[in-house]
Amino acid sequence: MKQMIEYRVKGQPVFIGLEDSKRTWKLCVRSGNQIVHELGIPASFDNLIEYLMLRTLAHFTKSGILV
Q1: pLDDT digits (tens, 9 = 90+) for 10-66
Q2: For the sheet containing 14-20, what is the strand order?
Q3: What is the pTM of this model?
Q4: Which residues contact 9 (CB under 8 A, 6 or more apart)?
Q5: Distance (Å, rounded) from C-alpha 40 to C-alpha 25?
Q6: What are the domain boundaries of the chain?
Q7: Are 13 and 34 in contact (CB under 8 A)?
């Protein structure tokens, strides 16, 4: 699955959407008009930062998309 995600987003812009509510937040990562990843997290700024810094940005940086 990891190779498939790298293929989809390589060289394309990545967009992260956030739907917020009182208890949970839903994130959707899109690239090239396709959904790359979706998840729900508890509504906490710390959880959001952890996801963005440790997972998404780290993955895309390794793929050579972000510097």
Answers
A1: 777 888 899 988 899 999 888 888 888 888 999 998 888 888 877 655 555 555 554
A2: 14-20, 24-31, 34-42
A3: 0.65
A4: 31, 32, 36, 60, 63, 65
A5: 6
A6: 2-62
A7: no
